[in-house]
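PROTEIN DESIGN WORKSHEET
SECTION A - STRUCTURE
LENGTH: 93
C-ALPHA CELLS:
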C-alpha cells in the first residue's frame, strides 16, 4: 500500500461541531480516532451490519463459490418449473 503525503489543509469546525472533508467523501462512513486531545485520525471504512456478517464467514463464502460453480456448469432452463416449485414448497432438494 503506497502512502501519499499531501500538504495539510486548514478546516474550520463549524458552530454545530462539523467539518467538511469534501464532496468526494460524501456519504462515506469513516472511523474517527482521537489519539490525544485535539489530535484525530479519520479513515474511510466499510462497515458490515451484524445481520450480514455471516456472509463474510469462510463457510458462507465456500457455499457461494460452490453455488456459482454449479450455476456456471448448468444452464438456466424453464423446463420442469412446476416440479421445481413443488419440491421447494415441500422443502425437498
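SECTION B - SEQUENCE
RESIDUE ASSIGNMENT:
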Amino acid at each position: 500500500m503506497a502512502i501519499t503525503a499531501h500538504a495539510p489543509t486548514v478546516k474550520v469546525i463549524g458552530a454545530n461541531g462539523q467539518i467538511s472533508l469534501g464532496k468526494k467523501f460524501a456519504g462515506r462512513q469513516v472511523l474517527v480516532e482521537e489519539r490525544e486531545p485535539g489530535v484525530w485520525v479519520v479513515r474511510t471504512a466499510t462497515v458490515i451490519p451484524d445481520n450480514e456478517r455471516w456472509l463474510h464467514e469462510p463457510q458462507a463464502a465456500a457455499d457461494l463459490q460452490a453455488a456459482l460453480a454449479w450455476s456456471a456448469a448448468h444452464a438456466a432452463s424453464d423446463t420442469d418449473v412446476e416440479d421445481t416449485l413443488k419440491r421447494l414448497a415441500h422443502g425437498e432438494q
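SECTION C - NOTES
DSSP finds two helices and two strands in the chain.
The chain has a mean pLDDT of 89.
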